[in-house]
User: What shape does this take?
Amino acid sequence: MRRRFTWIIWLVLVALTASSPLWGSESTFLTSVFAGQLDPTQWFVFNALGLFPLYFFILARNDQQPHLRSLLYLSGMILGGFIIFPLEVTSKTKPQPLTKLNLTLLVSMDLLFIGLLIWALIFGDWSLYSESYRTDLFVYVMTWDFFAFLGVLTVKIIASYKTYFNNIMNDKTSAL
Assistant: This one.
């Protein structure tokens, strides 16, 4: 049932993206990226889309998934959350407790993500982002991609929380 529900969500996100009225319109977003002329809200979402595939890659390597499958998670930097959904639904590996290195990497990325979010909330103009969402296909797809990544990552962490953080919880209880 859970897998079927996940596939339905994936299909809805793909349909939302494919049915955009912006197809065929010209996007100026990447030009703005390379010129360094983005609002902090746009930078936040754009950079978060680079961090999310790294999260999945680290978790895949930690869970000892096959190398090719792990590398496919990195392809999420180009193909976005839409490639991560099928990879997660078809995954047969069981989560493993996080190694100290992987935990350090994930916490570092969390801090970077939180820093970017705070920067976007304080200095960003969400009305500008909203306007870009309505007029620029790249921003439109990027926004739905952000929600796809965030949703899959949240479900993965919640479902495997005890396994991933087992070593940390055991270390703290043994110290008492």
In short: The mean pLDDT is 82. The chain has ten helices and no strands. The longest helix spans residues 137-164.
